[in-house]
């Protein structure tokens, strides 16, 4: 099977097997001068349950806006966003989603274990159980011995691991990730990719990973949804059929080159 199978942009019917579904989604924001900024236009695609889907696009193409709509933080101006078959404007069990932001957003006065446990504090779980679950999740990301450490005592990669543990401690069915490793050095970033794929294999949750880095999308994703420059639209959807690990393999390098060529032909506004 080819490493890359291209399909035309589409918005297929609702399917209960889809973790997320975007149906003709558009979004505008009001500028300070009163004018309207069109961020997304008629976006439609699905995230199959258990898959890793990367949204690849240039800065300003609405990737984070779309992720925020999936998380229920924003509503579309037009179209529909469905989470596990339910519209975000209706009743959604938000505990089934985890969100990892670009910044780690760790509270400096809390230890690592308390930062992870923060995600559990909105429910009725007791303090002891929260702490035990948070500590167990730190162990999953390789930081079992650092639960009592404060953020300033941790490296950038360790802080990212704490943020990942916090996103996973509620055991979500869907994990939303907004360029979470973009500020890490290359070696640490590679380590985080490996860890994320390992956890995905173990837990089988659906992952939506936003990035503007072509190589990162190829390394991680089962499917790549490539956005055009603003207003963001689905330019191309690609199924990636490559075995892991992919970093540095001839097949992955070929796919990266093909994607870069497609981007170069799309717009000079996309800085690779």
From TrEMBL:
Q: Name one Pfam family in it.
A: ABC_tran
Superkingdom in the source lineage: Bacteria
| SUPFAM superfamilies per UniProt | P-loop containing nucleoside triphosphate hydrolases
Q: Where is the signal peptide?
A: none
InterPro entries recorded: AAA+_ATPase, ABC_transporter-like_ATP-bd, ABC_transporter-like_CS, ABC_transporter_ATP-bind, P-loop_NTPase
What are the ABC transporter domain coordinates in residue numbering?
Answer: 20-256
A GO molecular function assigned to this protein is:
ATP binding
- Which controlled-vocabulary keywords does the entry list? ATP-binding, Nucleotide-binding, Transport
User: Which family is this protein grouped under?
Assistant: Belongs to the ABC transporter superfamily.
Q: In its UniProt entry, what is this protein called?
A: Nitrate/sulfonate/bicarbonate ABC transporter ATP-binding protein
User: Which species is this UniProt entry from?
Assistant: Rhodoplanes roseus
């Amino acid at each position: 099977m080819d490493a890359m199978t291209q399909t035309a942009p589409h918005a297929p019917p609702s399917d209960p097997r889809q973790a997320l579904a975007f149906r003709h989604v558009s979004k505008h924001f009001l500028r300070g001068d009163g004018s309207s900024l069109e961020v997304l236009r008629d976006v439609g695609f699905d995230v199959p349950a258990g898959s890793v889907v990367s949204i690849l696009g240039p800065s300003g193409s609405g990737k984070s806006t779309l992720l925020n709509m999936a998380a229920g933080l924003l509503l579309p101006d037009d179209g529909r966003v469905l989470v596990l078959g339910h519209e975000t404007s209706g009743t959604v069990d938000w505990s089934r989603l985890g969100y990892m932001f670009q910044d780690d957003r760790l509270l400096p006065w809390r230890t690592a274990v308390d930062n992870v446990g923060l995600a559990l504090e909105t429910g009725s779980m007791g303090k002891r159980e929260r702490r035990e679950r948070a500590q167990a999740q730190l162990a999953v990301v390789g930081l079992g011995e650092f639960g009592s450490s404060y953020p300033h005592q941790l490296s950038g990669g360790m802080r990212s691991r704490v943020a990942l543990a916090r996103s996973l401690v509620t055991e979500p069915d869907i994990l939303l990730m907004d360029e979470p490793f973009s500020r890490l050095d290359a070696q640490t970033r590679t380590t985080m990719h490996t860890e994320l794929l390992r956890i995905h294999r173990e837990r089988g949750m659906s992952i939506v990973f936003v990035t503007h880095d072509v190589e990162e999308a190829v390394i991680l994703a089962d499917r790549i949804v490539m956005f055009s420059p603003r207003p963001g639209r689905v330019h191309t959807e690609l199924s990636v059929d490559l075995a892991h690990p992919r970093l540095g393999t001839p097949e992955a390098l070929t796919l990266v080159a093909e994607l870069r060529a497609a981007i170069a032909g799309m717009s000079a506004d996309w800085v690779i």
